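Entry — protein

Goal — fold tokens:
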Amino acid sequence: MTVDDLLSRLDRVRRTGNGWIARCPAHEDHSPSLSVKAGDRGLLVKCWAGCTLEEVTEALGIRVADLFFETPTPRGRWTTPTPPKLDRVSLAFRFELAALDRRLRADRILKAATGFDIDEMGDKDFDRLMNVIGRAYDDQEHAEFLETVADDLRVKAYQTRMALDAA
């Protein structure tokens, strides 16, 4: 059951900050006391006047199991969720932003590291400096990888668009 299916069975439904509130069908409700929220695995329903979940679902003519998203369909088969459509162009943009962030950070660190006189450093400070510089070079390599992934995503998006235009 979806949120819309459940809300269509209720009276005086009003949107709240994180869900909805409506009149409870299990008791004579003059001011809305039933809260409804979509959870990770189903619909969360609570009557703040004290009605049990079973009383609320019985008054709505549904079972408690109907409130879960992964309940079998009437024919006994599980519904398969459709995966969200992948927007390769916006994903490529995100990879490019991550690459830019890593490149800028690495450049700042490597530029700052050029001014140190290692002869005056102790072993501990020298080790810390070398670790930071090593991470900066790792960031540069990671940025190159992220840029390659972004390029591949853009090529795939272009190929998909051309295939759709040709069809």
Q: What stands out?
A: The chain is about 50% helix and 10% strand.
